[in-house]
Amino acid sequence: MASFSNLPVEILRMIGGHLSTEVDCYTLAALAATSRYGHWVFNDQLYETDASGASLALLWAAATGRVRTVQLAVTHGANVDFTYNVGQPFDARLRPALRIITAHVPVDGPGPDHPHRQGTALHIATIMGHDEAVWRLLGLGARHTSPSLNLCPCNPRGDLFRRQSWRVNPVLWYPLWRPLHLAVCFGNVSTFATLVERGASLDKTGGATSVPARYPTSLQHAAYAGNFDIVDFILDHPGAVSRATATIDVHGHAMTPLELVYMGSGSGDREPRRQIMRRLVQFGPLLGEDALFRACRSQAFGTAVDLIESGACPQLSSQSLTTMLYYTLKFHEAHRVNLAEDGGDHPIPHHSCYHDSPNILQCDRAALLELLVKRGADINAEFPEESPPVTALMLATEPEHDDHAALKTIQLILDLVYSPRASNSSGMTVVHHLIKRMTTPRTGVAPIPPFRPTVPIGRLMHLARYGLLMLDAVDNEGMTAFDYVYNAVAKHIEQWDSISPNDAVFNVFGVFGGTEGAIQAWRFYGLELVDMMLYSGRLTLDVPTRNEEMTRRDLAKQLFDDSVQFHPTSLRAFDRFFPS
Fold it and tell me: How far is CA 145 from CA 13, 200, 414, in A?
């Protein structure tokens, strides 16, 4: 019996032609792989059959970077600009390459919310970063203006499998991106350079010709993604000034690349973003104080630090610096990503490297405080943004701040200024402000975290150590810090029954269960706070004042039927700082 290799070429090609009509590329490929003779006989038929529709060879070559296969596929008739449906192939021949492609592009079923992922071989090669394949495809006639759909996470519902996605929404719901955009999105610098060298426009990344202005430029996206190498490459080309000053609308705000840097997504490394800021500053436009105020109000203190140090905001007066100091010290309840002045309905993200953890937040706050004082901010100023005006120490001690953050900030202020301001123009001391903030009812807002007996210990300790714990000081209303505590307790007990549950007064002691429980909590925690103040001030209060306040405290306990007992843990905590 004659072997397969001994059959005439004509018969073998008839077999191959029959397989081609059945669109059985798997069998045809198996025959071509049997031997060198089989490869010589069937390989051309395999490529020609493959090229008759969606060329698997071309797609596979683009995904794996096989330049010779790219050339063979196109030579045998493959459409170099064929748009593939990636994720749910309409042709069974695409399935072998599906694993390669979907390893880098997540696949969801098609539907109104998840359309097909579509792109050409050039898009796939760009995503994979195969520069030689990109070069060859362009040389074979692939269009660098071809649009792709849903191949990258840059849409309002973008997947986060790659973190350089364009997460703002000035573009279409499902934008059509060109290969140049994919090079930025996937961080492929050399591929980006290859596309530009072969004629791709630096400024056009979107494929929808009807609304080109709604797409970011490659510089805007590279700045947003934190890709310094691509930013540097773009700025080395003619037209750098116009590109660096071009704006894009982000929820009603005209944002330059310099502003997009701190808003963006991408890797968590902060240094490339600093480098981008310094590079963009060379071309302008520089930012005004509003950008810094927004950063401080949203607690993105690292953003303000990087902008100032990069030279992005050179025109800052002493008054502006002092106002920034206020925003840096003040606790803001608004979410840190809000850009609009009124809190806004459209959150704009600051990059995660500026707020990944409370530790980063506090380190950036400290760095910004030192930088502002170094640049001329008056840390002993009164801040008229509040009534009555407050001082830096007052803001740092406010109970809304995290304990650790408050202590660090207080210590930093005390280190920065030899003689910190002890009181404001209304006669209120730092302790006045702290106690008043802790005992003032708060309506219409969420409560401050529930009171713990140890909350003021560290703050009182720092103030006492520096001679600022003036518990006997009287403000312009004739009130001492003790008076604020007693008034708050009495007012709460008198008014509790008249307050409806929907209008409950929130305060630093938290919200407790029924009326009796709430009153008892106020009695207990209010008088415990008095005990803590007396104990911390035992080295600073004169004897007559101390005895008078202790008598008043004992009388209050008697009025409450001696139901209040001082918590021993507070005394033990104070003993560590104020040994007898």
Answer: 39, 7, 60
DSSP class per residue in 155-197? STT--SSSS----S-SS-SS-EE-HHHHHHHTT-HHHHHHHHH
3-state secondary structure 489-543: HHHHHHHHHHCCHHHCCECCCCCCCCHHHHHHHHHHHHHHHHHHHHHHCCCCCCH
Name the nearest CA neighbour of 435 among 511, 525, 498, 538.
525
Distant-in-sequence, close-in-space partners of 506: CB < 8 Å, separation ≥ 6 = 441, 442, 443, 445, 446, 447, 448
555-574 pLDDT per residue, tens: 777 766 544 444 444 334 33
* Coil, strand or helix at 267: coil
**Domain boundaries along the sequence of the chain:** 311-421, 429-580
Phi, psi dihedrals of residue 324, rounded to the nearest 5°: -65, -35
8 Å CB contact between 100 and 60: yes
- Judge whether 324 and 292 are in contact, CB under 8 Å: yes
Residue-wise pLDDT for 371-387, tens only, equals 999 988 888 888 888 88
Cα distances (angstroms) measured from residue 206 to each of 193, 240, 544:
18, 20, 78
Q: Where are the beta strands (DSSP E) in 212-273?
A: 248-250, 253-255
pLDDT of residue 228: 93
Helix (H), strand (E) counts: the chain: 27, 6
Residue 120 tokens, joined = 């050409």
On whether the pTM is more than 0.85, the answer is no
Using CA atoms, how far residue 224 sits from 131, 163, 195, 277, 462, in Å, is: 24, 11, 20, 11, 42
Show the tokens assigned to 27.
Answer: 């069998």
Tell me the CB-side half-sphere exposure of residue 103, using CA atoms within 13 A. Answer: 9
**What's residue 10's pLDDT?**
60
- Gap between the Cα atoms of 492 and 506, Å rounded: 11
Report the C-alpha gap between 16 and 7 in whole angstroms.
Answer: 13
Does 285 sit behind a cis peptide bond, omega within 30 degrees of 0 on the bond before it? yes
